Amino acid sequence: MSADTSFIEDLPAGPLDAYRKKAKFDWKKLKLVFEDVNLLKMKLKVWNALEKDSIFQRPEKELLTKEQKRIAALQLQQFRKYKFMPTNGQKASIKDRARYLMTINEALAAAYPDVSVKQALGVFLFQNTLATLGTERHQHIIEALWNRQILSALALTEVAHGSDAKNMRTTAVYDKETQEFIINTPDFKAAKCWVGNLGKTCTVALVFAQLYIGDQCYGLHAFVVPIRNPKTLLPYPGIIVGDIGEKIGLNGVDNGFIMFQNYKIPRENLLNKISDVTPEGEYESRISDPTKILGATLENLLAGRVGTMQESANNLACAVTIAIRYAAVRTQFGPSNNEELPIIEYQLHQWRLFPYVAAASILKIFSTAAIRHYLNVIEISHTETTVDNLNDMISEVHAIISAGKPLTTWACRDGIQECRECCGGHGYLKAARFGELRDTIDARITYEGDNNVLVQQTSNWLLRQWHSVLEEGQVCSPLSTCSFLKDHLVILKFKFNGSTVQDVKNINFITRCYQWLITYLVKITHDKQTALLEHSKCKFTARNDSQVYKAAILSRVYGEFVALKYYWKRINRNDVEISLRPILETLGILYGLSCLDKHLVYLYQGGFANNHSLSELVKNGILDVCSLLKSDVVAVVDALAPPDFVINSILGKADGKLYEHIQAEFFNNPGAMSRPSWWREIKVDNAPELKIRSKL
Amino acid sequence: MANCLSDFPPGPLDKYRKLASFDWKQLSLFLNGEEFLNYRNELYNEILKYSVLLEQTDQTPTLDELRRKTTQKVFALKLVRDSVTARTNCNYADMSFAESSLAYLLDPSASVKRSVTFYMFTSVIASMGTERHRHFIENCLNGEILGCFGLTEIGHGSNTRGMRTTATYDPASRQFILHSPDFQAAKCWVGSLGQTATHGAIFAQLVTPDGIKHGLHAFVVPIRDSKTLVPYPGVKVGDMGEKIGLNGVDNGFIMFDQYHIPRENLLNKIGDVTEDGRYVADITDPNRRHGAALGNLSDGRINITSVNMCYLSKAVTIAIRYAAVRKQFSATEDDEEIPILEYQSHQHRLLPHLATFYAFRTFCKYLLEERDKFQLLLNKKSIDVHRITNTGLELHAISSACKSLAGWYARDAIQECREACAGHGYLKASGLGELRSNQDVCCTYEGENHVLIQQTSNWLLRLWPLVLKGKSVSTPLNTVEFLNRAPQILTSKFTPNSFEELTEPKNILDTFQWLVCYLLKLSFEKYESLKQHSLHSVESKAFWAKNDSQVFYAKSLSIAYIQHLILTAMSDKISKAADFKIKTVLEKLFALFAVTCLEKHIPFLYAGSYASGPTAAVLIQDSILRLCKSIKNDAIALVDVIAPPDFIVNSVLGYSDGQVYKHLEAAMLRAPGALSRPSWWKEITNWKKNIHSKL
């Protein structure tokens, strides 16, 4: 059975053809391994529409940030009008519907990250939170949202507290007399900040505040809070709201801050699914099934993180596309004076770039798998039937995503930087687009859960599994990402006894290494924590002082292992043609080996390798695989790459006409060849006649 | 003592300042010396006289406005330097580093532009021109003409031999005719060329009437009429548009269409063309001529090393001060919240970068002094040509590695600092974004790092045959004297068994000497074996063998070599410390930098059987954490020593008073229009009228 690839357009002919012809597979078929066919069609539909839409035309020159905000606001409104959802989409299951919405936002994010952030926060996250934490009395707000009558924001982070949500200081005190909540911000450190859409545009926000009845504090709760009059966009009295100003990137998003002064809202604005306050001022817990609530709450957090994973994998794909196409066309030096080589021919250049091509491939498939698991648990937690191990599944999905989001965003950060440097000076041009890609990924590293804090969730989960192995001899890993831990006695005895490059260039070796690494690291982290705990008697200290070289690496290694695991599962599905297997395996091995190269220290330290050749074999293995990949790599990026319109780089166009595009850019830049408007300020009146110009 | 250093305002940082184990002013004096501190103060006070240099904007201006402001700053900065240089008598090394630490941090665009406009242009003429070009230098330094420097072409950067702009001599008119055959041969990335330069030092292939190409030569080329700033006919010149950073610099491109310039505009020190069109040169070998033509690029690389370290110092200043003030989580609900600097993982993210600056600070001083001595040697026109050549080559090897390494260190430090400030680090007002965008270019200009660093290993690889033959290795700067003991070094083993033994300076230097010997031997053997077993044609075997021995071999070699040199310089400096407290803290920083570098080389220690068993790896990791912990209480004082003045720090997170939240509040509230509704508010409320689908 051969997949129908006819809907994928051919690429224009040009200087890249030389390498394209060398590929040993059909790039369109490979594309359908990286992408789900229906979702790809949906994304193409979105991109085609935006490419034709005048509001989405890219400006010729950088806009002032206030203008960027205006454009992004208008683009969001326009985007919300499009009906990209398939006609049966509205009736689809929760899971399919969510998948469609995520895909539409994914397409938007690849081309217009600012607009997608505005939509994700102001529409989806708001809607999800209302749906999971609110009740029927909030239904009308959701309807207004779907009717595009309001744009919202979600305010949690405060100026002085981000990761540490428990210590937030905004209060909502219940006033029995008026049946209202009174919201207050004690000082600027407690101002809500970084709230997307709050700076200029939203009319309503979800605000998290400490709920008080009398002197009693009941913890953080969410409230629907009106911010601006929708007719005039003026803020209501009692609040100070503003834009936090310019950022490194994503300047189309109006991130805002807000302070409340005795600001009153009706009692009903409390999102009351978990708990409520009666008109008389009694606090009532309404939790029926705690598992479901946990799932529901996590859903909101995880949606952002899996989305971030996918967008980051796409950004990385975009960056490697630009750098590989550039490397295949750009020539420099050569074995003799009259022959120059494309820089892709240099081993050094291959070693700098190809591991990121592999990473983009693996992480794209990994993020797709993570979304699938995420949507599965969401669907299960929405059904009426009780599933025994739902809690365990949720924990495992949470562990996967908590490792996956940092893994993907950091890989993307490093990959974009390497690609930027690999394009030399021309990579520094704004029109090469690396600057924007980097400024966008940069935000993802610290939002939706700061990476360094998030990885601790994964190691904590693994440590719990380890504990359970030691105590009960079993692990709770329904998705079996770490079920091998129960074989720890055998695994820890693994030794490397290979002697040739072939011994490391295979998935069995890589899997063995990872199983050993995870087991070893979870063991030493556990031992370290136990020792620290004995010494300090403080769990908090024990956990903090076992992160570096221990827990943090454990999460990373686990993330890489799971990514590879899902990748390998995908490429062995029977819809993958035999002709594609070699290239897919090559990419997987390259990813595995280049990740392992960074963990060699542990393999030596823990006695996995006594043989001093391991390091050399792994390094030679990487170089071998790189040279193998050289003739296929242009076709691999063709499979990874979105259309030119989305890549939006003069160095990375599919036609490979590098210098023509640079020339067009230079010659067409507004004012490129005219003297500056302020030329009189620098002209030299007493300039000497140097007689150095020729008289013709 | 140290009256050139003033106290910091009180505030939340006091707690850590009081914990410091040493007097920060003493350390500053020891590290920098009085001459440097005085010069820097002079510079600082002079800068304060120019309001244009002190302007701060909350909002990124338009590109055109940014260019205009930058150009004003270029002239102001030039006046600052002229005036301070005229009244003080400072040595080159201190002056150069002070410039980096103030001007480049104050406004990187203006500093880069000032440098190309006035100094690069004139230095090319000084080193490659003769008496007949002296007036260009004078006119330029007087500000009557504005220079630029054009080498890179669209299609060729690193490979300078492949450049295709030609300068063909026409005996009839006694002129050179400059020509760009196509867009790929356009000169590009030329700083100041985009909008402002009136003259350029342009490199082109010199062609004599007989059609023979004589290689790259530099020419003084008039570009724009300095009275109108309109380009002359025959040149097509333009601005390259927006970049990732340094947008105040008008990088330009230029194409020549049979553009005539007088014969005398050839910078004729290495070669000249007679009026009738004969080429005459002292150096007959074209390869050596090529080297001579591009020989004076070491200076730029040495300066970029300092500039990178100053960028790094600003980043760690911001992130460490923020870490001391920002609190998050507590051990139990009743405890106070803990400054994030107290967390092991946070220390590990930031403190090694602080150590990097200290290591490079002494190294930069050493290197700038060596460079200055070399300049004296050149000026003397000493007859010891051999010594001049070898010193030049060794300086080239050093500067090629340290420029690359400093670029990578600064890049990684800035990124880590940005992430360590989490959300607030993403604000423009944190200053870290701009720092990153401006630093970024350091990794690819003035020699793309990965290509450039090969110069260092090439130089080292030429020395190894001497070792093999048992001959003595002697280089003018003595940076690899230990190679004479290579056979013994290669049989030695990693012996430290404790933290104290590992961090002992002698043991550290021994380990790095082993690394350099091992990697040199390995790279040499790899190269030879690749060449021997190569399937490529005879003439291209060496080319491929060189290329295929870079990854894991030659690149690591260059890095280990320069790290050893940096550590040696720092160790020498520490041995001169009289104050015990200062000595102790510097020893910790030395050890932290060394062990952090060593960590990356651990696989080599095992692969080369220098280490075996778990000890080495465990010891190295544990030592890093231990050092971080023991430096933690000194971190703020160490930052105070290296921090630029507040108006240059210019970050709401990093001011010396530590009032992070007050500055954040002020920045958010003062941003123009922060609290007002957008001017386009009606487009939102009436959006249904404004937006129409075409579909």
Commentary on this structure:
The complex is a heterodimer of chains A (696) and B (695). With 696 residues, chain A is an alpha+beta fold. Chain A is built from 22 helices and 11 strands. Chain B has 695 residues and is an alpha+beta fold. In chain B, the strands form 3 sheets. In chain B, strands 1, 2, 3, 5, 6 and 9 form a 6-stranded mixed beta sheet that branches. Chain B has a 3-stranded antiparallel beta sheet with strand order 4-8-7, with no helix packed on it. In chain B, strands 10-11 form a two-stranded antiparallel sheet. In chain B, helix 2 (24-32) packs across helix 25, helix 5 packs across helix 7 (108-128) and helix 7 packs antiparallel against helix 8 (134-141). Classes of the chains: A alpha+beta (696), B alpha+beta (695). At the A-B interface, helix 4, strand 7, helix 9, helix 10 and helix 11 of A face helix 5, helix 8, strand 7, strand 9 and helix 11 of B.
Provide a brief overview of the structure.
The complex is a heterodimer of chains A (696) and B (695). With 696 residues, chain A is α+β, with helices and mostly antiparallel strands. Chain A contains 22 helices and 11 strands.
Compile the SSE list and pairings.
The complex is a heterodimer of chains A (696) and B (695).
Chain A: H1 17-22, H2 27-34, H3 37-52, H4 65-81, H5 94-111, H6 113-133, H7 139-146, E1 152-155, E2 171-175, E3 180-184, E4 192-195, E5 204-213, E6 216-226, E7 239-243, E8 256-260, E9 263-266, E10 275-277, E11 283-285, H8 290-329, H9 347-382, H10 390-422, H11 434-446, H12 451-472, H13 488-491, H14 507-536, H15 539-544, H16 547-571, H17 581-596, H18 600-605, H19 613-629, H20 633-640, H21 644-647, H22 658-668
Parallel strand pairs in A: 1-5, 2-5
Antiparallel strand pairs in A: 2-3, 3-9, 4-8, 5-6, 7-8, 10-11
Helix pairs in contact in A: 2-20, 3-5, 4-6, 5-6, 5-8, 5-9, 6-7, 6-8, 8-9, 8-10, 8-11, 8-20, 9-10, 9-16, 9-17, 9-19, 9-20, 10-11, 10-12, 10-16, 12-14, 12-16, 14-16, 14-17, 16-17, 17-19
Chain B: H1 14-19, H2 24-32, H3 34-47, H4 51-54, H5 63-87, H6 92-106, H7 108-128, H8 134-141, E1 149-150, E2 166-170, E3 175-179, E4 187-190, E5 199-207, E6 213-222, E7 235-239, E8 252-256, E9 259-262, E10 272-273, E11 279-280, H9 286-293, H10 298-325, H11 344-379, H12 385-420, H13 422-425, H14 432-439, H15 449-452, H16 454-468, H17 486-491, H18 499-503, H19 505-532, H20 541-547, H21 550-574, H22 580-600, H23 602-607, H24 615-632, H25 635-642, H26 646-649, H27 660-670, H28 681-685, H29 687-690
Parallel strand pairs in B: 1-5, 2-5
Antiparallel strand pairs in B: 2-3, 3-9, 4-8, 5-6, 7-8, 10-11
